[in-house]
């Protein structure tokens, strides 16, 4: 486990409280189902927006009720993250 991964797990310890050594996809998917902007932004900055979308697509493909409940919030958050990062990139 890399230091960055340990740091990420420490910052988001409550996501997977039953398994603090869980793999990244478990943490990312748990965060997506909670649909909190700041946490998803942190993940996008840590792992990249494509990785966040990849894990979201996995959840969508599984079709769980929890995913459907979070869908509109998550998609709005992902859109806002993409737009914000594009603005920052355009300024640099």
Question: Which features characterize this protein?
Answer:
92 residues; 5 helices; mainly alpha; 0% strand; globular
In total, the number of domains comes to 1
| Global outline | globular
Broad structural category? mainly alpha
Could you report the average pLDDT, rounded to the nearest whole number? 86
* Biggest pleated sheet: none
Amount of helix: over 70%
End-to-end distance: 32 Å
Strand fraction equals under 5%
Task: Please give the count of helices.
Answer: 5
- Rg to the nearest angstrom? 13 Å
How do the helices and strands follow one another from N- to C-terminus? HHHHH
How many DSSP E strands? Answer: 0
- Stretches where pLDDT is under 50 for at least 5 consecutive residues are none
Can you put this structure into words, describing what you see?
α2 (24-34) crosses α4 (49-62). The protein has one domain (3-91). The protein has helices at 3-11, 24-34, 37-47, 49-62, 65-91. The longest helix is centred in the C-terminal third of the chain and has 27 residues, at 65-91. The termini are far apart. The mean pLDDT is 86. 78% of the residues lie in helices and 0% in strands. It has five helices and no strands. By secondary structure, it is an all-alpha fold.
